Amino acid sequence: MKFGIVVNEGPYTHQAADTAYKFTKAVLEKGHDVHRVFFYHDGVNVGTRMSVPPQDDRHIQRNWSELAEKYDLDMVICIAAAQRRGIMDENEAKRQGLDGDNIAPGFRISGLGQLIEAGVQSDRLVTFGD
Amino acid sequence: MNDMPEDGGGVVKKFLYVNRKAPYGTIYAQESLEVVLIGAAFEQDVSLAFLDDGVFQLVKGQNTDDIGVKNFSPTYRALGDFEVTKLFVEKESLAERGLTEDDLMEIMYEDEDDDWEEKPSITFVNKSELAAIMADQDVILSF
Amino acid sequence: MSILHTISKSPFQNQSLSSCVAHASSGDAILMIEDAVYGAVSGTAAAAQLAEGENISIYALGPDLSARGLGEAKLAEGINIVDYDGFVELAVEYDKTQSWL
Question: Inter-chain contact C1–B131, Cβ cutoff 8 Å?
């Protein structure tokens, strides 16, 4: 079965990004497909590589990046939400005249259409938020 | 921006956007509306539900001049231009909050199948009717 | 078509749980995750509300119960405990998922 996952909250403040990660991992380990993970609202903040949590805490961004690498996941950060919150890839940073980018490995920035498309293409769309 | 509709394989699904949060205090209502507008290009069968604090999104007379936040409420009135014409508002949620139908914005659309007659986009439904609408969907997006 | 409803907030904080129960149809399931698992505790108004649903299966996410120190003995009758695998199985079993955010 094909899943779409929506993450609506950022890391650490809310548990949503953790639950979404555990759920997505379980989906993949059970042999299902994940069409896309879409990060919206403050969820886009999961995709910064500048996060440095304490040694004894989980590294939410790295967990997602490693999951993406292992399963070739498509992890999309909403561009409109990302621009508001300062999550940039190289192209976007250049286009906006900013001095650097901060997107983490395995994430890509794209439009809201990718969320709708995930709803159309997936058998199940599961949302995690506050 | 890569917001061009992708190939949905001609699939038309019933999408319901569930709005349960008030505007301005948090960004959810505004960013939900942005999804609805982008989603309109995908030619899916779209409905919006407003219940609980979500009914506050449609209250008329919103003026945000003094809070420094964009007033996005006029956008609801433009939804008809995007062929988003099914807005379901829950009666119990209104009543619990001291609101009546007259407290909400008038949202109309032109029905192309009926000689472009102007019709209201909002349908007032009770809890059990809304539950049936939820049950009837293929995809439910909550904000 | 059947719905798996998920709730993530404590019923003592907001109305999500009661609103969810009021909109769930016969044949649906409700899964409490994160802070919503406090609604599974026996003797609470939330647990009583959940029990009123006719032909609605009630689940709570085990890892979230454990994290919050809620053992099985504290839970109301009729609440089924699932882990993340069980969450996935529920999402597969029911036609669609609705998150009460």
Answer: no
**How far A2 CA lies from chain C's nearest CA (Å)?**
10
- How would CATH label the architecture of B14-142? 3-Layer(aba) Sandwich (3.40)
Model ipTM value: 0.97
The domain total for chain C is 1
Collect all residues from C whose CB is shorter than 8 A from any CB in A: 6, 8-9, 33-35, 61, 63, 84-85, 87-89, 91-92, 96-97, 99, 101
Q: For chain A, first and last CA: distance in Å?
A: 26
Q: C23: part of which helix (H) or strand (E)?
A: helix C16-23
Residue C55 zone, left/alpha/beta (φ > 0; ψ -120 to 50; rest): left
Contacts of C8 in chain A (CB under 8 A): 15-16, 19, 128-130
pLDDT at position B10: 80
**What CATH number should be reported for the domain holding residue C25?**
3.40.1260.10
**Which string of DSSP letters, residue by residue, matches chain A?**
-EEEEEE-S-TTTSSHHHHHHHHHHHHHHTT-EEEEEEE-GGGGGGGBTT----TTS--HHHHHHHHHHHHT--EEEEHHHHHHHT---HHHHHHTT-S---BPTTEEEE-THHHHHHHHH-SEEEEE--
Give bridge partners of residue B118 from the DSSP assignment: B110
Domains within chain A, CATH numbers bracketed = 2-128 (3.40.1260.10)
Instruction: Give this prediction's pTM.
Output: 0.96
**Residues C27-61 pLDDT 10s:** 999 999 999 999 999 999 999 999 998 999 999 99
CB distance B88 to B72 below 8 Å: no
